[in-house]
């Protein structure tokens, strides 16, 4: 008994020493530059994280004027993402990520445009009727290159969008480029209700055809497309034009469900990534009659989920594609939050059409896109819609 009791202080002392050493180890592990060279070499792996830590420590401690350590960390991560040479991968510093989250909040409003991010800024894909943007004279194809004093070149689309959006009644100053000329315009924001799906009947010499204009793959949008298609067919439409011009994409499941309106079974799209298994998405069932002819109308701003639908209908020979080459975004991203309050929005995989083709060519840059079966382009300076006219002619030919 006495011998066993005498060991208790030794055990407690050993435990105390272990805790202290653990604390010292944690501290020195994050401040390896404070260790003597022989000890540092023995205890610390000279890996990438230690290299980055030492570089930031050196700049923070020795640079001739004070610098923000947080800014050094942000720029380091931003530089790492930029080195990927992937226009769709971005780093949100904490402040930008907060703005991004607020930009998706329905309390915020905007000017009434849908946009496509480019290396130069935000390309206006569609101007919504009867909105501040429409009243200010903005057109499809205009380039927003600055918001206030903030230039948009080199920033993710979400950064520019967060600056354009704001409370109703407030103003935003935009620098807009058109035909090589720039102008600065102040527009008052308003609450915007964006119509996602619009269906209408068009009378032609060949008969009556339904036109479904679809602008964004938001939650439940595929059900809206289905409802519009069913209404038009019930009213006697001989065929359907699915107008995806200016549709920059959205939710993958909505793309699969939309394609399933026209494709009864089989593959719609597949995804694959280095850190994820290949997944094949198939038609969900309940398609309309295969005897109903379909034409998909596209342009250069048809991207992402829109290209999934277009490519699936073209590959499966369910529809003819009319318009211009699509954007070519054959990759998808995920947002991963970081301990500093920022986030990485990085490309994690690629989309593949039923034929096995990747929509975006090389996957990290603007790729080949989808080539239409019939080339057609709308002239914005005329009142006619030349693209739609070509789609209706193709539909008339199919319906004979």
Characteristics:
single chain; alpha+beta; six-stranded mixed beta sheet; six-stranded antiparallel beta sheet; about 400 residues; disordered N terminus
Description:
With 400 residues, this protein is an alpha+beta fold. Helices cover 33% and strands 25% of the residues. The chain is built from eleven helices and 17 strands. The strands form three sheets. Strands 2, 3, 4, 5, 6 and 7 form a six-stranded antiparallel beta sheet that branches. Strands 8-9-10-13-14-17 form a six-stranded mixed beta sheet. Strands 1, 11, 12, 15 and 16 form a five-stranded antiparallel beta sheet that branches. Helix 10 links the parallel strand 13 and strand 14 (320-323). Helix 5 packs across helix 7 (157-164) and helix 9 (252-259) runs parallel beside helix 10 (305-315). The N and C termini lie far apart (103 Å). The relative contact order is 0.10.
